[in-house]
Design goal:
- The complex is a heterodimer of chains A (about 300) and B (about 220).
- Chain A is mostly helical.
- The longest helix of chain A has 24 residues.
- The N and C termini of chain A lie far apart (about 50 Å).
- Chain B has about 220 residues and is an alpha+beta fold.
- Chain B has 7 helices and 11 strands.
- In chain B, the strands form 2 sheets. Chain B has a 6-stranded mixed β-sheet. Chain B has a 4-stranded antiparallel β-sheet with strand order 9-10-8-11, sandwiched between helices.
- In chain B, helix 2 packs parallel to helix 4.
- Classes of the chains: A mainly alpha (about 300), B alpha+beta (about 220).
- Chain B: Belongs to the iron-sulfur dependent L-serine dehydratase family.
- Chain B: Pathway: Carbohydrate biosynthesis; gluconeogenesis.
Chain lengths: ~300, ~220
């Protein structure tokens, strides 16, 4: 038997008539022996850091330490203002913010690991867009972060959140699944719909390898944060529309853990395979090797 | 819920990027090394092993280690300017590659010097920002930096540990974990004592004044 199950949590929340986020908040207050208001306040502070990382990444974009990325967020935001885009303001707003935070991370800016530094763009990207578009309060966003955290806790217990252990599906896949559940609850969806959004997100990230070029958290990490944010919104919309995942979220999570363990070492954050092993990837690694301070 | 993990391990920590093990863990190693020395070093030579050497510049591991030596936390925005702040504060530092043997791939060996003292220690960044100090002044240790600790170097003879424990008990501090190791019988030994709450300065002074104690230092959690 699994120790924690997302479906059980959703059933508990629905029986109590509360959201997954509210349930996770109550559990955390009980676990830590702290007042729920205080725990919510701490999460509100964390949200403040996330929002600031988006702002800094969009207003003062910098080149990453390895010099491979920088400024993609603002590029997309400018395009969004000037062009008849395919994805529209919601998706591209979230994606541009996710890119901005990923670049902040790669440029040694302050970020919130969510669930990891490598996947730190997805949640702030999705939540900033929703907060601005729908005028959500800090409290509502903080509660949605508890929804996201509940999903992360279940994945951590039953699969993995680490690229070295489970590939990028464990980092950006988990970040996207967490964001999808948060987006569902912010739109007024049920805990059960949040579970379907998690399942549909992880299904579409399953098998994603961790193959950072030159061992740096830059390429392809930033663009995987971008795609993760977009996928989270698509999954949330599908779930809110009433589309269900045939395979339940908990089973998808366990399957993801198994796929992660089956990945060869070369595709688990060792920079020995995938994009890191392409001719261009190797060329960049050779160029950067021992020379990064000169960039 | 039956899990013991906090939601703030999932949404968090707040940190300076880009990597929890190569940046946040590296800063914590620098900070704990500084605590063993007791002040900001005048000079610091770091031997970087394995992955720590190969990607240290790209991940800012070097900046983070120096930031830790200056006493900065993992979310301090000054981490990226740590080299110039070190220069202002008269901290001279260098990094070099090293094969430290059969250790964790993210390991570093510190050689630190202040006006009064010098210290050598080895530690590793073991993932997710967690660290382990494995060796101090040639003594084997296992220190995670998650709780407050007292570090002593003392003469290896009967009764020393009991007299230290007496001082701690008198101050009503509960010892959570204790580890003693020595190089050779009857020479010098080292003790790391982790406590639930921080030892008051007076207790540390009393311990330092015990005749067999050569050095006693508070290692605050990082």
């Amino acid at each position: 038997m699994k120790e924690i199950s997302l479906c059980d949590m959703a059933a508990r929340a629905e029986a109590l008539g509360i959201s997954l986020g509210e349930l996770a908040l109550r559990d955390e207050a009980q676990r830590s022996g702290t007042d729920a208001e205080q725990v919510l306040e701490q999460m509100t502070e964390t949200w403040g850091v996330m929002r600031e990382s988006v702002r800094a990444g969009l207003e003062k974009p910098r080149r990453s330490r390895g010099g491979m990325i920088g400024g993609e967020g603002i590029l997309l935001k400018t395009y969004l203002g000037q062009s008849h885009s395919y994805c529209g303001e919601s998706v591209l707003g979230a994606v541009s913010a996710a890119l901005a935070v990923s670049c902040q991370n790669a440029a040694m800016g302050k970020i919130v690991a969510a669930p990891t530094a490598g996947a730190s763009g997805i949640l702030p990207g999705v939540l900033t867009m929703i907060a601005e578009r729908d005028g959500k309060s800090e409290r509502e966003i903080a509660l949605a972060l508890f929804t996201a955290a509940a999903v992360g806790l279940v994945i951590s217990a039953n699969a993995s959140l680490s690229g070295a252990a489970g590939g990028c599906q464990a980092e950006c896949g988990s970040g996207a699944a967490m964001a999808a559940a948060a987006a569902v609850e912010l739109a007024g969806g049920t805990p059960r719909q949040a579970c379907h959004a998690v399942a549909m997100t992880l299904k579409n990230q399953m098998g994603l390898v961790c193959d950072p070029v030159a061992g740096l958290v830059e390429v392809p990490c930033a663009k995987r944060n971008a795609a993760g944010a977009a996928l989270a919104l698509v999954s949330a919309d599908m779930a809110l529309a009433g589309i269900e995942s045939v395979i339940p979220a908990d089973e998808v999570i366990v399957a993801m853990g198994k796929v992660g363990r089956a990945l060869p070492e070369s595709l688990r954050e060792t920079s020995k395979g995938g994009l890191a092993a392409t001719p261009t990837g190797r060329q960049i690694a050779d160029r950067l090797g021992g020379n990064l301070s000169k960039l | 819920m039956s899990n013991a993990q906090s939601v703030f391990n999932i949404i968090g920590p707040v940190m300076i990027g880009p990597s929890s093990s190569h940046t946040a863990g590296a800063a914590r190693l620098g900070k704990i090394a500084r605590a063993f020395l007791g002040s900001t070093p005048r000079s610091a030579r770091m031997e970087l092993h394995g992955s720590f050497w190969h990607t240290h510049e790209g991940h800012g591991t070097d900046l983070a280690i120096v930031a830790g030596l200056l006493g900065f936390d993992t979310d301090d925005e000054r981490i990226k300017r740590s080299f110039s702040i070190a220069a202002e504060q008269g901290l001279h530092f260098s990094f070099e590659p090293a094969d430290l043997g059969d250790v964790h791939p993210n390991s570093v060996r510190f050689h630190l010097r202040s006006d009064a003292d010098s210290i050598e220690l080895t530690g590793a960044s073991v993932g997710g920002g967690n660290i382990l100090v494995t060796e101090v002044m040639g003594f084997e240790t296992k220190l995670t930096g998650r709780s407050n600790a007292l570090f002593t170097i003392h003469e290896d003879r009967p009764g020393v540990i009991a007299s230290v424990a007496q001082v701690v008990a008198r101050h009503r501090i509960n010892i959570a974990f204790m580890r003693v190791s020595r190089q050779d019988e009857g020479t010098l030994a080292c003790m790391i004592l982790e406590s639930d709450s921080a030892l008051p300065p007076q207790a540390v002074q009393e311990i330092a004044a015990l005749p067999p104690i050569r050095a006693a230092r508070v290692i605050e959690k990082v």
